[in-house]
Each structure stands twice: as structure tokens, then as C-alpha cells.
């Protein structure tokens, strides 16, 4: 059955009973959560709690043992990663993976090319124009012609986000986009992510920088040992005793 996702409250992403094991080890244990369209969702948990495994199951990089993933009302559980990407699930990686022999602009063009659906009508704007507008949006327009190995850390993170944006995502999964940045750089990237959220892009943020993820999120979920131990408003989640014990070690 196809859902009406034009309704503000309809979930963009529905995860139901997701379980993932590696050999005899259960990395995700019966995870169920809905994420609404336009929601800014923080995913936290101590090292090894299952955050990356969960987003790998959402993006299709890993196949779950049980459970389902619905996106825009469609069951995508059996789809490979590239078809999930075409449907609007993009991911930015903690360690940026640019094509090093290409310029910043060329890197983006690859993403745009990939996102375009074969056989579809020509886009209203030439791809280079679209790529330049994304770079401008990220504050990287002046770097369009620069080789990627000349970029600073924060510029690389922004380019990684720009590449994800070139996929024209409905859902952007940001995997530790701020790790290793200075306070002011964290704020810069955070402001960018918040502004993307304001444009109705649903964002799942995995982040160990607690202040950043709290400022960003409308809702947060904390995993521990592959299970959801808290889900709710950032203040509530952080005040949760199980979260404090598991995540903060108190
Ligand atoms: N391919 C794999 N094979 C075996 N075990 C794995 C594999 N991938 C993850 N695991 C295990 O699953 C558990 C969850 O790992 P995961 O990477 O999802 O945690 P995480 O919350 O993302 O951790 P971190 O914050 O350190 O990135 C860990 O115990 C990890 O060792």
C-alpha cells in the first residue's frame, strides 16, 4: 500500500523490527522507529552501539537479517544501495572520499550525474549550474576549480555534504561530519546542516559531539548494544539515566 507522504506527519522513513547479526553477534536487535518528513534526527550511542550498522541498513550497504525499511511509503528493504540513493537517500561520510584527481566542481558533477534518472526528461538547469548553486550554498563557490587535495578539513567536510546534496536527497544521513573540527568550524557546519533541514530535507545526524547533536536535533535516539534505550526530545534523552550510564559512563 502506498502512503500519502504529502501529509506533514506521515513518516518519510519507517524502520520496523530491524535486526542485524554478524555471525553469532547481534549488532541491531529489533529496532523500530519512524522518522518524519523534514525532521532533524540525532542518532547517538557509545562506540559499538550499532549506529553505523543501522545507517548501513538504511542506505542498503548492509542487508538486515529481519525487519523492513519503508521510504516514502515504499518498501525498500530488498533494494541495493544505488537504487535507494536514486530514491533520495544520500549519505555523507566521516572521512571524506573525494575523487582526488578531480576538482571540487567535477566531484559534484559526478554526484549529479549519478542522481539523474536514465531516460528522464532533461533537467531545467544545466548540471554545472546546479553544481555551482550547491557549492555557493555550502560557501565553496570560490573553490569550484580547486583540486580537492588543496582543501582544508572544514572545506572537505562541506564538500562531502555538497556531494551528498548533489544526489538531491530527501533524506541526508550525516555521519560525524564535524569530528575533529574546531569549535567555530563545528558551528559553521552545524548551521549549514540546520539550514538544509529548514529546506525540508530530512536529516539523520550521527555525532559524538553532544552539544552539536543536541542543538541540531528535534528528536534524538540513543542506541546501546543494538537496542533503543531512549527516544525523544534532546533534553529528555540526555536526562535519561540509561543514556547517562551507557553513553556518558556515569
Ligand atoms: N562487518 C562486521 N563484522 C562483524 N562485526 C561488526 C561488523 N560491523 C560492525 N560490527 C560490530 O557491530 C557492533 C556495532 O558496530 P557499529 O559500527 O554499528 O557501532 P557504532 O555505534 O557505529 O560505533 P562507533 O561510534 O564506534 O562508530 C560493534 O560491536 C561492531 O564491532
From TrEMBL:
- Please tell me one Gene Ontology term that the record gives under cellular component: plasma membrane
**Which keywords describe this protein according to UniProt?**
ATP-binding, Nucleotide-binding, Transport
Query: Domain ABC transporter spans what residues?
Result: 13-250
Which GO molecular function entries does the Swiss-Prot or TrEMBL record give?
A: ATP binding; ATP hydrolysis activity
- Reading the lineage from the top rank, the first entry is Bacteria
Transit peptide: present as a keyword of the record? no
The reply on keyword Protease is no
The record's PANTHER family line, in alphabetical order, gives: CONSERVED COMPONENT OF ABC TRANSPORTER FOR NATURAL AMINO ACIDS (PTHR45772:SF9), CONSERVED COMPONENT OF ABC TRANSPORTER FOR NATURAL AMINO ACIDS-RELATED (PTHR45772)
Q: Any idea what job this protein has?
A: Involved in beta-(1-->2)glucan export. Transmembrane domains (TMD) form a pore in the inner membrane and the ATP-binding domain (NBD) is responsible for energy generation.
Q: What is this protein called?
A: Branched-chain amino acid transport system ATP-binding protein
Q: What organism does the record attribute this protein to?
A: Bradyrhizobium lablabi
